[in-house]
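Quick entry, no commentary yet.
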Amino acid sequence: MSLFTTLQNIVPQQALSEFAGKLASSENPIVKRFFIHGFSTVYGIKLDEYQRDNWNDYKSFNDFFTRELKDGVRQISDKESGIICPADGKVSQIGQIKQNQILQAKGKSYEVGQLLADHELGKTMLDGSFATIYLAPTNYHRVHMPFDGTLVETIYVPGKLFSVNNETAENVPDLFARNERCVCVFDTVFGKACVVLVGAMIVAGIETVATGKLQRSDVIQRQTHNMPLKKGDELGRFYLGSTAIVVLPKEAGTTWQGGLENGTVVKMGQLLGISYR
């Protein structure tokens, strides 16, 4: 295990994330200016693609971090039966669900039912497919619908707050099934499908269009919904970076595009694969 991973086991993950959340939500002019300008300088962030292109237009660092894109700067693939990328970021892993397992990193996998916090739901994904997209701090941090579907349930799952970068994925077993997350469950033309928003170290919160910002707790929270959403519609957002995982059933018959592998840079809206249902 690396030093970076070991340190994550030592630090008070929850307390650190809550402290970061308070600072990130502060509307104090000095605090927000310090974090927005410091963050933008370190990561070289420009506002050309965003609706608000003046730093002073953001009321807090969280508001800045979840900034919205200008209309039309991301093209949503209109490929028939296409599955699109839900977020800007990099492919962590992508492929098929084999023997109930999703690949996390080379030599490491985890159970799909454990990820979804529902083993019966996990059974509906046997021999299906998945795409794991990592959002770095510099990325656009809203998550969008990869397919048409009706949101029927959200499952908030309390958990750890490990970092979700490559180094941690290679060293922490069952990483995505251990971290705090929100499982979004959809009815689609090919049956049940899911998008999982996974929290991480210093992530100040997860929000969906159906629930608003989720309140952290020590117990699983399940909510039912009936919200139709179209491919490309906003589904949720992260207050500081993390990972989105698309989970599809075998019935979707998904074939992923060639050339997608660990580290491939992707943009929200681009074609990831085709469902041949």
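second:
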Amino acid sequence: MYLTPQHILLAGATGLTGEHLLDRLLNEPTVSRVLAPTRRPLAEHPHLENPVGDPAVFLPQLAGRVDIAFCCLGTTIKQAGSEPAFRAVDLDMVVAFGKRAREMGARHLLVVSALGADRRSPIFYNRVKGEMEAALKAQDWPQLTIARPSLLLGDRVEPRLSERLAGPLSKLIPGKYRGIEACQLARALWRLALEEQDGIRIVESDELRRLGK
């Protein structure tokens, strides 16, 4: 079965994947409203609502019907400045977004996690992503889709040196470890959003690439 979502809540619309997803959503004839809170303003669009400011302030104030929520939030320890600051975004903010989306009536949450996410991992990044996934599962969503992309490829507003260096090599790696273009991930997320499948679904990077072709 396929849903026809009309009202979308999107977090992370200014990020690499979020930008591609937002563009797709605003050009979908079945989508009548995209609510996309951001820290900096987005370009105006008749179907876009864009609260601007501190998420901690406006998140509880978001209102209106929501059918499906997408969470593309994510940073790096370098960008955040410290491990606690990284956790505040990639764990705390994501979990708070999921909670608010559920309160607004969303039945399906799609979240961008990472390849290797595991709350028992000795690697800090993977451990935080795993803790985030576990916290969202505990919110008891009717439908929860967790996307685990490998290295994201694409042109960022603020380029990440590690991605620029590893990007060409990642294209040569087989299977789920091969890098994935952000535009492919965005297309895959939209396809997954249209599928009605109760429960939790974890989608690894190789399947995301296939869905995003």
